Amino acid sequence: MSETLQAVRGMNDILPAEAEFWELFEETVRSWLKSYGYRPIRMPIVEPTPLFKRAIGEVTDIVEKEMYSFVDSLNGEPLTLRPEGTAGCVRAVIQHNLLAQAPQRLYYMGQMFRHERPQKGRYRQFHQVGVEALGFSGPDVDAEMILMGARLWADLGLEGIELQLNSLGQPEERAKHRAELIAYFEKNAELLDEDARRRLHTNPLRILDTKNPAMQELCAAAPRLIDFLGEESLAHFEGVQRILKDAGIPYTINPRLVRGLDYYNLTVFEWVTTRLGAQGTVCAGGRFDGLVAQLGGKPAPACGFAMGVERLIALIKESGGEPAAPAPDVYVVHQGEAASRLAFRVAEGLRDNGIDVVLHCGGGSFKSQMKKADGSGAAFAVVIGDDEAAAGEVQLKPLRAEGAQQQRLKAENVAEAIIDQLIGSDEEE
Ligand code: ATP
Ligand code: MG
After folding, report:
1. What is the SS3 assignment for 371-397?
2. CA of 266 to the centre of ligand 2 (A)
3. Ligand 1 atom with minimal separation from the 122 CA
4. What is the distance between the alpha carbons of residues 315 and 153, in angstroms, rounded to a whole number?
5. Whole-angstrom distance between the N-terminal and C-terminal Cα of the chain?
6. How far does the centroid of ligand 1 lie from the alpha carbon of residue 309, in Å?
7. Which of 311, 312, 316 should be mutated for ligand 1, with most atoms under 8 A from CB?
8. pTM for this one?
9. How far is the CA of 308 from the centre of ligand 1 (A)?
10. 205, 212, 270, 274 from 217: Cα distances, Å
C-alpha cells in the first residue's frame, strides 16, 4: 500500500460537523452585513506578488516572511496566495472603476495564507470575513464599523470582547513621531532584539507591534504617536469616540496599537478577548486613506476591518454555543428493483414539498438500513419493499414521536401525511 498523504501543515480540513457550524456562522454574518448595506465581492485567491508588496509594505511581518509566493512555471509571473483581502479588493475596485459612481460598502469571506508557526488560533491557511467601505472620509463610517462589530458579537451570543482604539494620525505626523521614536530606541539600543534592530531605521513604528515579552517595558515607555497628532486628526478621532459614546460602546485607547500592516492612518481598532489564550484578537481594522492612490487609483478614502473566522468559531464554542447538527425530515429505506424506482419518485416528490430527504444508497438488509435511518436523526422512515411497490404504497414509520403508529399510505399521499405530522408535533412543543 502506498503512503497516505496528509494536508499541508497548518492547513486544516473542516469536516462535516464542523462545516455545518461554519455555515450557520456564515448565515449570521451574511444577514448582519446585509442589514448594514454591505454587498459581496469575490476576488481571486492568487494575485500578482507586487500587489502585496505595494499595499502591505516591504518591511512588515507578512511581506518579509509570511507570504506563499511562487513563480508561475508557465509564464514566469511572480504570484502570491493572498495573505489578506484588502489589497485584492482595492485592486478589483480600481480595475473595474467601482468608485466612479458612488462610494462602496463591500465584503468578502474566504481563505487567507500566511507562513506562520502553526499554533492555537494561528494557522497557515485561515479564513477572514473582510469588510471595506471605500469612498467615505468622515469618522461616521469608522464608528459605524465598530458598531457593526458590537452588533455581531451580540448576534453570535458572544460577551467580553473588548474594543481597543487608537489613531495613527497622518503621514506627516507619523514622520515627526518616527524621528523621536528612533532617537529613543537608539538611546536604548542594548535592549533591542534582532527584529527591532533591523527595523529601527526602516519601520520603527513596527517595533511597537512586537510580540517579544522582553521588549514590552521598553515599548510601553516609548514616545506616543497620539501626542504628535494635529488638530484635524484629533477632531477625527474625537468624532469616532463621540459616536461610540452615544451608542454606549465601551473602549480603551491603546496608544501602542499600530496594526501589522503599513497602509493604515487615523483610526485603528481591534476587538480582543482574553478567552482564547495568546491569539486573542478576533477582529482588527482601521482607516487606509492612502491605499487606493498607492495602488494606482484616483485617490479615495477608505476604512475596513477583518475578522478571524477560526478564532471567532473557537470563541463561540468556548461560550457554549453549539448549533444542533441538522437532521433530515425523512430517511427512505427500500429493497428490490421496483421498490428502488418508487423510492426515487417518492424522495423527489417529498423534496418538491420542501421536505428534507436522505435516500438510502448502497443496498443492504432492511435491518441495516433501518439502523442508518435511526442514526440520521430523521423524524420519519419511509419504507418500501416489493409488496408496497407493487401496490404503489409506502410504510410511513415515525422514528422520534413516542407511541406514534406506522401507517401504510398511497405513495402520492405521503408528503401530506408527513407535513401534517410535522406541523402537529410543532404545535405540541
Ligand atoms: P496577529 O497579530 O494575531 O498576527 P495580524 O495583525 O497579523 O494578527 P490581521 O492582518 O489584522 O492580523 O488579520 C485580521 C485578523 O485575522 C486577526 O485579528 C486574526 O483574528 C486573524 N488572523 C490573522 N492571522 C491569522 C492566522 N495566521 N491564523 C488565524 N487567524 C489569523
Ligand atoms: Mg500576524
Report:
1. HHHHHCCCCEEEEECHHHHHHCEEEEE
2. 20
3. 28
4. 10
5. 54
6. 10
7. 311
8. 0.86
9. 6
10. 15, 10, 21, 20
Residue 323: pLDDT over 80: no
Query: Which residues share a beta bridge with 40?
Result: 107
Q: Please tell me the distance between residue 65's alpha carbon and the centre of ligand 2 in angstroms.
A: 10
Does pLDDT of 404 surpass 60? yes
Residues 373-389: tens digit of each pLDDT: 999 999 999 999 999 99
By mean pLDDT, which of 39-43, 110-114, 187-191 is the weakest? Answer: 187-191
pLDDT in tens, 155-205: 899 999 999 999 999 988 988 998 999 999 999 989 999 989 988 888 888
Q: Whose CA is nearest to atom 20 of ligand 1?
A: 308
Among residues 270, 283, 339, the alpha carbon closest in space to that of 310 is found at 283
Probe residue for ligand 1, chosen from 195, 254, 279 as the CB with the greatest number of ligand atoms within 8 Å? 279
Q: Whose CA is nearest to atom 5 of ligand 1?
A: 260
